[in-house]
């Protein structure tokens, strides 16, 4: 008689628990040396319930199918001058931010999930971490491969890994992930799988991909969707991992709550860059940052934390601050980038009248009152040939590393500025959220590699801006400065010229 | 109050069929269209029945094929040979 076919749950059980074994000549503490030092207590690893049940045969089958779909689009882009399909060359700055800031994080995630796949004591979690490690490598590779098409025609993309390690605004995502990978395995899971992937990742990927779709960037939509389907698995891993830790021992609850508070705030500050991209870099806009925050944090996060309340978990500390700031942070971030575009590998530009009207409509309580006049003044200066660039170096927050330009929650005309003392030195942070994080682990954050400090200490190629930009590998006059007058603008206009109808004969003769 | 669960699908041929199956099988589900994607929300639980999707596609659809169409979800996941569900415990 033929063997009975196993159902999905049985197959997955054999694949994970069935292939695991009890060690006989080494102690578990020696095999998993990182499992206990964070204070997390797990009594029964078998209580872990796998959310998605992908066996290897299914995993390879579906991943191969995703790759086939993506490479069909990459080929099509290459064969059909796909770069001409985007709404405007300004749009490409969103893609530049993505490859400079996000793609290297995919590689970091690949490395660290491989570490977890070795070091988590539970077989089910190890298998999920191993698959995620392979996924993250795929994301990194497919993003590089897809965006390489734009690198043939646009600036600022040519040396993104080098820039990721050195540029001031890219130290924001880099230090975020370095912070996570230097934490223990359970903090990393809470930080990346739960706080970032589950709670906040929709705010990164969905607006990026929806924005790309709306702006004719078929390539980014396709790699984004290809990655995002894996992301659904990763998000669910984060949710179930946190739930598992909370169910295993009551003593885990305050530890996990502390990590949720910390990593919510770290992730939220990191998303400032995405928020600015949404409100300022998309020629055709999908939704405002404030609207995205309402849908993906206030609504979805509200449901999540209501569900976790049974374990004694509350909403992240300072979620109310993030809510109160939603009408401000994107304008403040754009201001930073406009000020320092000469030192960045993205362009900024005059916000035109149509865009100003959109901002007034989306931010009725803040934009006209606090930000619009600033942009009009800059426009006047630029029209007089004196486009404003800030030649001072900004103070950076010791924790999130964003230049200190955020304002007090109850007063948008005062810079928010906090000071801590540690080991006889003063350390500055941008908010109560970042100050709490510093004060909890000052030994860690006092060692932060702050780009501005490093320039002043003489570690960044020299004492002048051009020397530092060389050290960044910024191709000066192409990668940096205002979009107006850039080689990219000239190239784009030339392409578009070919699309405009020729002037009528009679008019041309006059 | 039952908290909403949510699933976001690609606007692809399979994605459309899955979205239609969800709307037919889950009374009270709300559907919202965005560029390139469709988001469906419902209080408590959303279930995708393999038979329903198969009927719309005219071929056997395996719930694990959800991996080719899903963009995001909110809630816990339960899957087996004949369904894929998102729910709050």
Summary tags:
heterodimer, A: 510 residues, mainly alpha, Ribonucleotide Reductase, subunit A, two-stranded antiparallel sheet, 4 strands, B: 89 residues, alpha+beta, Phenol Hydroxylase P2 Protein, four-stranded antiparallel sheet, three-stranded antiparallel sheet, 2 helices
Short structural summary:
With 510 residues, chain A is mainly α.
Identify low-pLDDT runs of chain B. none
For the biggest sheet of chain B, the summary is: 4 strands, antiparallel
Order of helices and strands of chain A: HHHHHHHHHHHHHHHHHEEEEHHHHHH
Number of strands of chain A: 4
| Superfamily (CATH H level) name of chain A | Ribonucleotide Reductase, subunit A
Any idea what the shape of chain B is? globular
Shape of chain A: globular
Summarize model confidence as the mean pLDDT of chain B.
93
The CATH superfamily of chain B is Monooxygenase component MmoB/DmpM
Number of helices of chain B: 2
Terminal Cα separation of chain B, in Å? 13 Å
Structure notes:
The complex is a heterodimer of chains A (510) and B (89). Chain A contains 23 helices and 4 strands. Chain A is mainly alpha-helical and 510 residues long. In chain A, helix 3 runs antiparallel to helix 10, helix 9 packs antiparallel against helix 10 and helix 12 crosses helix 15. The mean pLDDT of chain A is 93. Chain B is an alpha+beta fold. In chain B, the strands form 2 sheets. A 4-stranded antiparallel beta sheet of chain B has the order 2-3-1-5, with helices on one face. A 3-stranded antiparallel beta sheet of chain B has the order 4-7-6. In chain B, a hairpin with a 2-residue loop joins strand 6 and strand 7. The radius of gyration of chain B is 12 Å and the shape is globular. The mean pLDDT of chain B is 93. Classes of the chains: A mainly alpha (510), B alpha+beta (89).
């Amino acid at each position: 008689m033929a063997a009975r076919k196993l159902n999905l749950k049985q197959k997955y059980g054999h694949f994970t628990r069935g292939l695991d074994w009890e060690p006989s000549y080494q102690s578990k503490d020696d095999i998993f040396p990182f499992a206990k030092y964070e204070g997390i207590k797990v009594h029964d690893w078998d209580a872990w319930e796998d959310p998605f049940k992908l066996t290897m045969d299914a995993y390879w089958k579906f991943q191969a199918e995703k790759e086939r779909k993506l490479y069909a689009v990459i080929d099509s882009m290459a064969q059909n001058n796909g770069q001409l399909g985007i709404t405007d060359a300004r749009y490409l700055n969103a893609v530049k931010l993505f490859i400079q800031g996000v793609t290297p994080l995919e590689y970091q995630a690949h490395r660290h999930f491989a570490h977890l796949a070795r070091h988590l004591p539970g077989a089910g979690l190890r298998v999920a971490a191993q698959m995620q490690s392979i996924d993250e490598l795929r994301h990194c590779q497919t993003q590089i491969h897809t965006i390489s098409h734009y690198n043939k025609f646009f600036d600022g993309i040519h040396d993104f890994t080098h820039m990721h390690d050195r540029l001031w605004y890219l130290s924001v995502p880099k230090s975020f992930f370095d912070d996570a990978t230097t934490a223990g395995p359970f903090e990393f899971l809470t930080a990346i799988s739960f706080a970032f992937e589950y709670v906040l990742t929709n705010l990164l990927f969905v607006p990026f991909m929806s924005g790309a779709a709306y702006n004719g960037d078929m390539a980014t939509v396709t790699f984004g969707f290809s990655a995002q389907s894996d992301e659904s698995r990763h998000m669910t891993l984060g949710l179930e991992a946190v739930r598992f830790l909370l169910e295993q021992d009551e003593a885990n609850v305050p530890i996990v709550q502390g990590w949720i508070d910390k990593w919510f705030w770290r992730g939220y500050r990191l998303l400032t860059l995405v928020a600015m991209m949404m409100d300022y870099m998309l020629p055709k806009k999908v939704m405002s940052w404030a609207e995205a925050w309402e849908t993906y944090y206030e609504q979805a996060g509200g449901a999540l934390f209501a569900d976790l309340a049974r374990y004694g978990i509350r909403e992240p500390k300072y979620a109310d601050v993030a809510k109160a700031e939603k009408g401000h942070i994107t304008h403040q971030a754009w201001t930073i980038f406009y000020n320092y575009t000469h030192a960045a590998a993205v362009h900024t530009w005059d916000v035109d009248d149509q865009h100003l009207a959109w901002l007034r409509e989306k931010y009725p309580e803040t934009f006209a009152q606090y930000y619009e006049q600033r942009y009009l003044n800059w426009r006047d200066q630029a029209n007089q040939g004196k486009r404003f660039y800030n030649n001072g170096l900004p103070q950076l927050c010791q924790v999130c590393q964003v230049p200190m330009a955020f304002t007090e929650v109850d007063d948008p005309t005062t810079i928010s500025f906090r000071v801590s003392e540690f080991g006889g030195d003063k350390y500055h942070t941008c908010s109560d959220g970042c100050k709490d994080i510093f004060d909890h682990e000052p030994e860690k954050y006092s060692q932060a590699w702050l780009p501005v400090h490093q320039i002043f200490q003489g570690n960044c190629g020299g004492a002048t801006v051009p020397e530092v930009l060389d050290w960044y590998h910024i191709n000066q006059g192409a990668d940096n400065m205002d979009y107006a007058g850039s080689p990219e603008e000239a190239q784009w206009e030339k392409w578009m010229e070919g699309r405009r109808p020729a002037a009528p004969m009679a008019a041309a003769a006059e | 109050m039952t908290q909403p669960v949510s699933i976001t699908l690609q606007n692809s041929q399979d994605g459309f069929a899955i979205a239609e199956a969800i709307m037919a099988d889950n009374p009270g589900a709300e559907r919202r269209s965005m560029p390139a994607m469709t988001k469906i929300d419902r209080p408590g639980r959303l279930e995708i029945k393999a038979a329903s999707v198969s009927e719309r596609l005219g071929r056997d659809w395996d719930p694990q094929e959800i991996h080719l169409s899903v963009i995001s979800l909110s809630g816990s996941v339960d899957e087996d040979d004949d369904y894929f569900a998102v729910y709050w415990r």
